[in-house]
């Protein structure tokens, strides 16, 4: 572990913005919320944020991404993989864990270079949570802290940041700030420990379930009469809970042509299993026509499918879906608690 | 499939509307030159004198509200292989349908007073598919140029255009906007509390019709700092009840909710009611 | 696949033959431009791609034992990609990714009796296995083929079907839901489930292999249930929406009480025992 | 030559909306000479009733797609007048900028895409793609620049989003303004090329004059577009609130839209009217262009409206640069991206007047104590021009009827109407409204 004074850290970031060929991204205020965006100055970096509107997945799996370009006259198709190398500042532990889950999906299913190259070319600078969104239950999900998934990890210890190095990429980045780095003593280590110890108080205290019972609970509730219907009654099928989720990665693929019909691109775009047409096929057959079926499907994904496949619970407790669902029905804590209480009662 | 050597003939027509959709086409700048590479524009009253009754694709802008217009539209239908509604007035009745919920004699009186008898119009404004069969829709007030290009391109290639069936929230989230309902948390909380405490919210709350409005505009209005007004019409299966509850929870009165839904959904709501 | 390769870049294949099977279904014979072989197993599918239109999953209908290196797709024109393909001519090229998915367990079926039940376009994937089995006839025991269509003009692969009917070593029955008066039809009239009671099934030895439109499965399974055919001796090929074919896009997931499956990887061919508890499957 | 003339132009092309020209003459005697407006009524003055002050500009923007920015601004000004809402100087400057953008866009469209084909003897701008590709590209560049500008300030070219009661929901950044300024500066060559183009063809304009009254806004602070008081070349100035006394709309049989008159039987509004009233306040470079065409106040040739439009485009560009300089000098006051000004609602009536491409536009609303509209009235420029068009036709036809073939008369008449750049789709409403007493 190292430490760096806050002023020195700002200089370091400003120097990267000015000199590093890579794009420097950081969490910034967006009106009364926060978002990852390209940094113009270290001043704008907000390492005290609670949660961002969208998770940083947008940098590895962009909302719209060209996969293939074609020319219909020549019948030619070429693969496209636009990679912008980036240094991303301010990723919270739960998002780092979500990124590690996504890595598995795109690495182990097949190696999807469109994702993996973007990951390889990014440096992830994490930050331990100074503030938490009132919706976050990362502590319950075991994602309030992480020992892996970052290249560098910052902790605010007053007038300094403690810096943990997680990878070669991380230490290479630090190279440029070498002269400003301090060695840490017991005091700093103690401060980081205290910081982490205080974390649980920052999160909501209503979750009553344990994440690893979720696969079992979901199996029990899979066919539960009325359960999903009731919970989904007010669902607008707007997909917000999918789109803002750091572990959702389902996508659509479509061809977009220019008006002359000669040039075009095949795009991969974000999709959402809560959208009505998600499981619809030709001939108007829809395998999840009812919103309750889609609602259940989302929970199966979060609490069981990824667990069965990779051993991960695919909810990291960021609370984005809970906060951003307009009719306020997408809070996993609410649904998981209902299942937990129900089974307890049986 | 490549465009045939004989270019399809395209015509534009307008009825009761602001001609903003045709302007979007004119505003394509250099792309217009690309467009005329692949189609023959034979009728575009807004920018050209020549006109021909021989066309394959008719883009129709504006709502229908007089017998005379209805007859003209039927003539267009007979001539064209494809009739495409251009913009919300033609596709869903659009802003014109605000008056559909107002008593017609009052409407006439407000606008023409004693001269009301000189004016011949229907008591409601209708989208063109209330009069003739329609083969395609370009939604929006005004239309989105990319979507227009996509619809033209699709027609030329003989495929169904991919028009979103999901709500605007999808694009709004992809654009990482601060949701209208999250912009003023203190006021919202006070409203919700007041509603719980005394049964009605304190102050007129935020509104956004994005959750029930068909996407395809790239959530443009929200991106520009305002709110989704519903100009592209309802999604195919809107959960209007749930959305109405949301709007009321945040502080809109029932009347206000109805007014917002009436901005663009007037005709569609009538249709939904008739279906049930 | 090399890690630098895009998973989404199709390889060019040329249409070398095209034949109309019914008013809306055509058989396409394709050859990779670079001369390579598809190397598929019966029941697997490819992603067929037309630049400017999109992609669609299509089963390979030819048997790997026949006609290689070219392969056949039997395609019904129902939407953008399929319609566009129907408008294409011999000599033009399309994109192909694949083969993908888990096909029929041709090995496991060896030495057993087989009961093929095909409804409509369901014959497309089954034909691959049927011809594979016929080309390795000695490896398999009794073969029953039940094939149902809406009406006579929708029956496909007539030459092959009449060949099945002629062969002594196959039991074959065809049926149509209805037959217009003016059409001459020698087979049965009635839905395909009506043929099942007439088939002699050795419960220890028979495997049923079923493919057809979503509505057909429920009724066929009911009939097989009546026969008391064990569930793990039934194989089904399912259709789902797919956007990648390789287990990423999420569209084809099927949720069950205990687990969830991807039609593109775990399937499209499934053992009935495995998916019978899946409300979403059938 | 044409003793018997029967001109029946149904749906005049290259104008907004639907209008017919009917001329009937037998043995050299005119039996009918009419400018008919046959647009389907849309009832905006009723549609606004019962809606909130937050929605009115959104609704009335839809009166006209071409001048949607102008309608939005007139609407906002009426609302702000009624509810006593002040806007900041910065917002005012930005609004002036976006109005310049629209004026420029509309004029370039009109002169370049609609009028030029007449002068070049083609039926539309499309053949110019092969016959005059460079000229066409120049026009397109200017057109695109104006659209980029309205998008940057208003958030959208048509039916702008950022303009809201009390200011802007979102404003451009300083960098964006610097960038825009650069583009505006670089457009000088294109402007000159356009002027050259028009100068080459301007002798195609018929030599026609009819003395009439010109009405526009005027202001001591500069060439009036966004604000000012009403000015008439005949009768002097009036406060905006007195607009009804100036416009005097009346119903005629041949039209679903109303006609208007002030001092004479008709008056003209639009670019030529503005030039006639405010010539001295034009930017020097714009004045230079006017001089090149011999356009001096007071000019009574309606065809010169096209030239006046070009002069205004130049003024729009020059004044925009000046406004951006002011904004940058003073430093842009930042604001939230989803800004919504706090507004105290109160009952009241307000009038907003703005110069839009086709002339002076009035919106007039009455609100109740909840900010809900109880009555509305919009007087649209083209409505005010209808009578003048009619009178011009009445003077022009007898002059030419025995001298020109029917075809040429028809073209002259079409060009005459087009010179006004009429926006018929938006003119076809309103007549009188009873106002609820405050
Ligand atoms: C494993 C497998 C094997 C198959 N084998 C064959 C075969 O051998 N022969 C054959 O003819 N067919 C086969 N199919 C079916 C075939 O894939 C579909 O008929 C085909 O995808 C239709 O594609 P299209 O582009 O022509 O249709 P479209 O309907 O134009 O679109 C393609 C797909 O995307 C969906 N889609 C596109 N846009 C939307 C939208 N806006 N909203 C909702 N849904 C949309 C459609 O429902 C459809 O599934 C198979 C399917 C699967 C899964
Ligand atoms: S965010 Fe809420 S309303 Fe939207 S799809 Fe998810 S659960 Fe439904
Ligand atoms: S399910 Fe909700 S709380 Fe869980 S990771 Fe996704 S967005 Fe966050
Ligand atoms: S469209 Fe409206 S409701 Fe939906 S996310 Fe955007 S702002 Fe929120």
CATH class of the largest domain in chain D: Mainly Alpha
Question: What is the count of DSSP helices of chain B, taking H or I runs of 4+ residues?
Answer: 12
Mean pLDDT across every amino acid position of chain B: 88
Structural class of chain B: alpha/beta
Instruction: Name the shape of chain D in a single word.
Output: globular
The total domain count of chain B is 2
Helix content class of chain D: 40-55%
What kind of assembly state do the chains in view correspond to? heterotetramer
Tell me the distance between the termini of chain D: 61 Å
Notable traits:
heterotetramer; A: 346 residues; D: 438 residues; alpha+beta; Cytochrome-c3 Hydrogenase, chain B; 2 domains; three-stranded antiparallel sheet; binds flavin-adenine dinucleotide; binds iron/sulfur cluster
How would you explain this protein's 3D organization?
The complex is a heterotetramer of chains A (346), B (276), C (282) and D (438). Chain A has twelve helices and twelve strands. In chain A, strand 11 and strand 12 form a beta hairpin. Chain A is globular. In chain B, strands 2-1-3-4-5 form a five-stranded parallel beta sheet. Chain B is globular, with a radius of gyration of 21 Å. Chain C has two domains: 90 residues, Translation factors (Elongation Factor Tu (Ef-tu), domain 3), CATH 2.40.30.10; 125 residues, Rossmann fold (3-Layer(aba) Sandwich). In chain C, the strands form three sheets. In chain C, strands 10-9-8-7-11-12-15 form a seven-stranded mixed beta sheet, with helices on both faces. In chain C, strands 4-3-6-1-2-5 form a six-stranded antiparallel beta sheet, covered by helices on one side. Helix content of chain D is 45%, strand content 16%. Chain D is α+β, with helices and mostly antiparallel strands and 438 residues long. In chain D, strand 13 and strand 14 form a beta hairpin. The longest helix of chain D has 32 residues. In chain D, helix 6 packs across helix 8, helix 11 packs antiparallel against helix 12 and helix 13 runs antiparallel to helix 14. Chain D is globular. Chain D has a four-stranded mixed beta sheet with strand order 8-7-6-11. In chain D, strands 1-2-3 form a three-stranded antiparallel beta sheet, covered by helices on one side. Classes of the chains: A alpha+beta (346), B alpha/beta (276), C alpha/beta (282), D alpha+beta (438). At the B-D interface, helix 1, helix 2, helix 5, helix 9 and helix 11 of B face helix 1, helix 4 and helix 6 of D. Bound molecules: flavin-adenine dinucleotide and iron/sulfur cluster (3 copies). One iron/sulfur cluster (SF4) binds next to helix 11 of chain A.
């Amino acid at each position: 572990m190292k430490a760096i004074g806050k002023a020195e850290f700002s200089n370091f970031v400003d120097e990267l913005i000015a000199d590093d060929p890579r794009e420097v991204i950081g969490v910034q205020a967006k009106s009364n919320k926060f978002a990852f965006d390209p940094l113009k100055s270290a001043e704008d970096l907000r390492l005290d944020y609670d949660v961002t509107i969208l998770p940083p997945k947008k940098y590895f799996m962009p909302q719209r991404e060209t996969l293939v370009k074609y020319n219909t006259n020549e019948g030619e198709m070429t693969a496209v993989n636009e990679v912008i190398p980036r240094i991303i500042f301010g990723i919270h532990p739960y998002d780092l864990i979500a990124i590690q889950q996504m890595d598995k999906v795109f690495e182990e299913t097949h190696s999807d270079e469109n994702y993996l190259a973007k990951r390889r070319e990014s440096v992830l600078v994490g930050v331990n949570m100074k503030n938490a969104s009132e919706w976050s239950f990362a502590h319950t999900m075991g994602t309030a802290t992480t020992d892996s998934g970052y290249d560098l990890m910052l902790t605010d210890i007053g007038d300094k940041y403690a810096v943990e190095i997680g990878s070669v990429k991380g230490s290479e980045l630090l190279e440029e700030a070498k002269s400003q780095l301090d060695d840490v003593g017991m005091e700093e280590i103690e401060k980081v420990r205290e910081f982490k110890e205080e974390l649980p108080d920052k999160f909501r205290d209503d979750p009553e379930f344990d994440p690893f019972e979720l696969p079992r609970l979901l199996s029990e509730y899979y066919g539960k009469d009325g359960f999903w219907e009731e919970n989904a009654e007010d669902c607008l099928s707007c997909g917000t809970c999918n789109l803002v989720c750091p572990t959702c990665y389902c996508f659509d693929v479509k061809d977009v042509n220019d008006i002359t019909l000669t040039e075009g691109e095949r795009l991969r775009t974000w999709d959402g299993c809560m959208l009505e047409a998600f499981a619809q096929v030709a001939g108007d057959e829809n395998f999840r026509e009812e919103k309750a079926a889609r609602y259940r499907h989302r929970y199966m994904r979060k609490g069981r499918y990824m667990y069965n496949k990779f051993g991960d619970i695919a909810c990291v407790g960021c609370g984005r879906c809970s906060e951003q669902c307009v009719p306020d029905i997408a809070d996993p804590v609410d649904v998981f608690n209902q299942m937990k209480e129900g089974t307890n009662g049986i | 499939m490549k465009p045939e050597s004989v270019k399809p003939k395209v015509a534009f027509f307008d009825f009761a509307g602001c001609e903003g959709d045709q302007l979007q086409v004119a505003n394509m700048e250099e792309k217009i030159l690309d467009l005329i590479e692949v189609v023959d524009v034979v009728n575009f009253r807004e920018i050209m004198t020549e006109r021909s009754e021989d066309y394959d694709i008719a883009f129709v802008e504006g709502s229908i509200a007089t017998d005379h217009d209805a007859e003209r539209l039927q003539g267009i239908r007979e001539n064209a292989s494809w009739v495409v509604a251009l913009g919300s007035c033609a596709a869903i009745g659009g802003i014109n349908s605000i008056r559909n919920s107002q008593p017609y004699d009052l409407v006439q009186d407000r606008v023409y007073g004693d001269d009301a008898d000189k004016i011949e119009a229907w008591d409601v404004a209708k989208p063109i598919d209330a009069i003739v069969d329609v083969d395609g829709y370009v939604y929006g007030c005004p239309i989105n140029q990319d979507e227009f290009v996509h619809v033209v391109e699709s027609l030329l290639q003989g495929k169904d255009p991919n028009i979103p069936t999901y709500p605007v929230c999808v694009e709004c989230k992809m654009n990482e906007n601060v949701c209208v309902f999250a912009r003023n948390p203190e006021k919202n909380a006070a409203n919700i509390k007041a509603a719980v405490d005394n049964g009605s919210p304190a102050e007129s709350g935020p509104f956004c019709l994005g959750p029930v409005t068909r996407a395809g505009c790239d959530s443009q209005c929200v991106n520009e700092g305002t709110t989704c007004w519903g100009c592209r019409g309802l999604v195919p299966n809107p959960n209007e009840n749930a959305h109405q509850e949301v709007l009321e929870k945040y502080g809109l009165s029932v009347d206000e909710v109805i007014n917002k839904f009436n901005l663009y959904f007037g005709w569609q709501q009538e249709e939904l009611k008739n279906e049930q | 696949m090399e890690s630098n390769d895009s998973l989404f870049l199709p390889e060019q294949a040329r249409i070398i033959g095209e034949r109309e099977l019914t008013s809306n279904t055509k058989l396409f014979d394709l050859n990779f431009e670079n001369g390579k072989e598809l190397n598929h197993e019966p029941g697997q599918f490819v992603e067929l791609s037309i630049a400017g239109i999109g992609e669609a999953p299509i089963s390979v209908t030819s048997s790997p034992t026949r006609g290689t290196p070219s392969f056949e797709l039997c395609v019904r024109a129902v939407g953008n990609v399929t319609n566009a393909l129907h408008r294409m001519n011999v000599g033009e090229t399309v994109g192909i990714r694949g083969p993908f998915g888990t096909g029929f367990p041709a090995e496991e079926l060896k030495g057993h009796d087989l009961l093929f039940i095909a409804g409509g376009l369901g014959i497309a994937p089954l034909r691959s296995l049927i011809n594979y089995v016929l080309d390795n006839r000695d490896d398999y025991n009794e073969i029953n083929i039940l094939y149902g269509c809406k009406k006579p003009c929708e029956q496909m692969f007539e030459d092959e079907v009449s060949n099945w009917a002629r062969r002594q070593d196959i039991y074959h029955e065809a049926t149509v839901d209805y037959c217009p008066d003016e059409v001459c039809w020698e087979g049965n009239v009635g839905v395909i489930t009506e043929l099942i009671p007439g088939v002699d099934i050795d419960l220890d030895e028979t495997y049923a292999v079923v493919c057809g439109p979503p509505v057909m499965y429920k009724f066929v399974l009911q009939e097989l249930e009546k026969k008391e055919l064990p569930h793990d001796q039934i194989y089904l090929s399912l259709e789902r929406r797919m956007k990648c074919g390789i287990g990423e896009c999420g569209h084809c997931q099927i949720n069950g009480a205990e687990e969830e499956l991807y039609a593109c990887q775990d399937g499209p061919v499934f053992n009935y025992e495995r998916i019978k508890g899946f409300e979403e499957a059938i | 030559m044409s003793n018997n003339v029967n001109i029946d132009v149904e749906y005049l092309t290259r104008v907004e909306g639907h209008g017919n020209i009917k001329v009937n003459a037998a043995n050299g005697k005119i039996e009918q000479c009419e400018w008919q407006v046959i647009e389907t009524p849309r009832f905006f003055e009723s549609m606004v009733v019962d809606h909130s002050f937050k929605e009115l500009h959104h609704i009335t923007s839809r009166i006209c797609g071409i001048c949607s920015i102008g309608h939005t601004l007139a609407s906002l000004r009426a609302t702000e007048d009624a509810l006593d809402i002040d806007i900041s100087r910065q917002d005012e400057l930005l609004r002036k900028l976006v109005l310049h953008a629209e004026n420029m866009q509309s004029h370039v469209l009109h002169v370049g895409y609609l009028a030029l084909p007449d002068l070049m003897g083609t039926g539309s701008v499309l053949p110019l793609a092969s016959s005059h590709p460079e000229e066409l590209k120049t026009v397109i560049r200017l057109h695109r620049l104006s659209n980029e500008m309205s998008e940057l300030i208003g958030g959208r070219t048509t039916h702008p989003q950022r303009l809201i009661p009390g200011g802007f929901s979102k404003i451009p950044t300083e960098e964006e303004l610097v960038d825009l300024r650069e583009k505006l500066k670089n457009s000088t060559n294109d402007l000159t090329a356009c002027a050259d183009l028009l100068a080459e063809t301007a002798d195609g304009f018929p030599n026609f004059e009819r003395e009439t009254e010109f009405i526009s806004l005027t202001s001591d602070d500069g060439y009036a577009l966004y604000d000012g008081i009403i000015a008439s070349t005949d009768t002097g100035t009036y406060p905006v609130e007195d607009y009804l006394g100036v416009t005097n709309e009346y119903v005629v049989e041949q039209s679903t839209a109303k006609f208007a008159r002030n001092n004479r039987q008709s008056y003209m509004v639009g670019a030529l009217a503005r030039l006639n009233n405010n010539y001295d306040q034009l930017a020097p470079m714009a004045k230079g262009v006017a001089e090149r065409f011999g356009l001096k106040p007071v000019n009574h040739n309606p065809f010169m409206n096209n030239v006046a439009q070009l002069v205004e485009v130049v003024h729009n560009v020059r004044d925009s640069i000046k406004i951006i300089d002011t904004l940058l000098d003073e430093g842009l006051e930042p604001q939230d991206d989803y800004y919504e000004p706090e507004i105290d609602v109160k009952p009241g009536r307000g009038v907003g007047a703005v110069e839009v491409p086709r002339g002076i536009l009035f919106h007039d609303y009455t609100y109740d104590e909840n900010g809900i509209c109880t009555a509305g009235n919009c007087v649209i420029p083209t409505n005010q021009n209808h009578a003048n068009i009619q009178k011009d036709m009445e003077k022009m036809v007898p002059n030419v009827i025995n001298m020109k073939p029917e075809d040429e008369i028809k073209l002259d008449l079409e060009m005459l109407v087009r010179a006004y750049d009429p926006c018929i789709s938006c003119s076809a409403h309103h007549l009188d409204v009873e106002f609820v007493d405050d």
